[in-house]
Amino acid sequence: xxxxxxxxxxxxxxxxxxxxxxxxxxxxxxxxxxxxxxxxxxxxxxxxxxxxxxxxxxxxxxxxxxxxxxxxxxxxxxxxxxxxxxxxxxxxxxxxxxxxxxxxxxxxxxxxxxxxxxxxxxxxxxxxxxxxxxxxxxxxxxxxxxxxxxxxxxxxxxxxxxxxxxxxxxxxxxxxxxxxxxxxxxxxxxxxxxxxxxxxxxxxxxxxxxxxxxxxxxxxxxxxxxxxxxxxxxxxxxxxxxxxxxxxxxxxxxxxxxxxxxxxxxxxxxxxxxxxxxxxxxxxxxxxxxxxxxxxxxxxxxxxxxxxxxxxxxxxxxxxxxxxxxx
Length: 327
Ligand SMILES: [Mn+2]
Known about the structure:
By secondary structure, the protein is of the alpha/beta class. The chain has helices at 6-13, 28-43, 73-78, 134-145, 151-164, 175-186, 191-198, 204-216, 233-238, 251-254, 286-291, 310-325, and strands at residues 17-21, 47-51, 81-85, 107-111, 124-127, 218-221, 226-231, 261-268, 271-278, 295-296, 300-306. The chain has a 6-stranded mixed β-sheet. A 5-stranded parallel β-sheet has the order 2-1-3-4-5.
């Protein structure tokens, strides 16, 4: 893995006041990197705030706190640096209405998505697709900048590393990833708290929703090598469940031994939102997502499709999986 550039470190360490933004529907990596960096910046004597205009997944509510709901024009003008974390494209940034392009000259983009385009609007950018997570890059950034790391930050960053690597099971887990996680634990990261937050925190609503999905919505194709589920708002409402808590739902499909490619389809505002996963590098879903204007990693990607019906969507997407699998 490459080392974070000196220029990028200098762009961060030269700032005195920061606003931090991340992507829509923030996951563990987005939240962990944002709050982890905020706490390191604060302990180093800098002013820093995270802007999360979105409702956070319930399980994280007790964990990541004190985010601003929005940033005013005055705050955006006043801060030295605007940090954007884990956002592959500028459209993915949850700005809460702020027009960040206007502040390009102080925008710092740190990410691990291949083909990151947020750098187009950022004066400073560091993108390393070989890093497991933005949390790993954030840990390395703070180490290289020489910022002290409080226990809260170490735990936040560990959480993001765990969620983006499937608890260090996915193939993006390298020696560097584990060495970085080890340093976080050495700095006091609370592994037990992280594990409880991520893995042992499922609501009964979520469990009931999952059961419903398994029984009523899970489908298979191509000799059970593809598994998918179509999730409707009606189904979500029945269980008072929201997909902002969807981390891990797709794993229910992925966990099945024959399944190589898994996909969740969620109809929202007349469009079909697809999340895809592959568990074999020979069959990357990233290129399939990009065919439909989406993006992401080789093994985890997403796209939004318009169609009259779920059948229209399946009629265009399933043949692409078939081609990919060569079956
Ligand atoms: Mn990430």
